[in-house]
Amino acid sequence: MHVINGVEALHVRLSGMGTVAFVPTMGNLHEGHLDLVRQARAHADCVVVSIFVNPLQFGPNEDFDKYPRTLAEDCTKLEGLADVVFAPTVSEMYPQRQSVFVAPPPIAEELCGAARPGHFRGMATVVLKLLNIVQTQVALFGKKDYQQLHIIREMVAQLNLPIRIIGGETVRAADGLALSSRNQYLTATERSEATFLRQVLSNVAQDVVRGVRAYPDIEAGAVAALAERGWQVDYVTVRERATLTLPQPADKSFVVLAAARLGATRLIDNLEVDIA
User: Would 232 disulfide with which of 69, 141, 161, 261, CB 3.0-4.6 Å?
Assistant: First the structure.
């Protein structure tokens, strides 16, 4: 496995390597990331993992400075799984002040976008840059960041990028908590409470399966259940899966999404739901 910091050196290394599967990450890798890397192996001759904490997608009061940076440990975890780790510096990714940005679709202003203005513009911009740098045929992203995956798929489709986007299933701890690099911010008490978010999503999903269609009511009930236990809730919502728009009577495929803060830590999760 080669660890490469520069764009030109990456191009030299990938020359003649055949097809490429790419897993972009911000590092501090956990089993969710590694599962995507293992899946990538089945889709190409060469697997590239990027590790880059992107300043463009962090707001002024967010955790860019304290976001865990664990490159050495990450590379140890990737041994035997990836062929190349691309770990550029900020100056390598942004050699001049970025003045050209991807304008994501309107859904980027809703859900997590409403709570984190500009986040998806920064995310889409760096993902497009990385896709162009790696020149991959396949890229894999986790479904835990469901809105992010949707926006990336829209960007790739509408900009006619010759890249297949694969969504990997959310990897969870034994107690059901979705794995996330930010979980380590949780205190022991908060970590125990964090599983309640999945429980709330499951309750909403069960209502949808049972035929409840008063979505605002079940969403409000879910928000109240979290708030009663001290969560600061950004949203709990039911959306049509393919478009992330509000459900219509004929819809059969849904996703229940939630984002809420537990103490200082913002957690997101989702569950896909199908009805007959």
Answer: 261
CATH of the domain at 219: 3.30.1300.10
- Give tens-digit pLDDT for 204-251: 999 999 999 999 999 999 999 999 999 999 999 999 999 999 999 999
CA gap 220, 205 in Å, rounded: 14
User: For residues 40 and 14, is the Cβ–Cβ distance under 8 A?
Assistant: no
CB of 212 within 8 A of CB of 218?
yes
Q: Would you call 206 exposed, middle or buried from its count of C-beta atoms within 10 A (0-12, 13-18, 19+)? A: middle
Query: Residue 272: which of 154, 149, 138, 140 has the closest Cα?
Result: 149
Catalytic residue (one of 2, 30, 33, 150)? 33
Range of the domain at 215: 181-270
What is the 8-class DSSP label of residue 172? Answer: B
Of the candidates 222, 199, 217, 210, which has an alpha carbon nearest to the alpha carbon of residue 271? Answer: 199
151 plus 28 within the same structural domain: yes
Residues 6+ apart with CB under 8 A from 220: none
The pTM score is 0.96
- Does 140 reside within a domain? yes
Q: What is the pLDDT of residue 61?
A: 85
261: β partners: 232, 266
CA distances for 227 relative to 149, 190, 232, 267, angstroms: 28, 14, 6, 14
Is 33 an active-site residue? yes
What number of other Cβ atoms are within 10 A of residue 44's Cβ? 19
Say which residues have a Cβ less than 8 Å from residue 233's Cβ, sequence separation at least 6.
223, 226, 227, 258, 259, 260, 261
The two structure tokens encoding residue 117: 């203005």
Contact 41, 18 (CB under 8 A): no
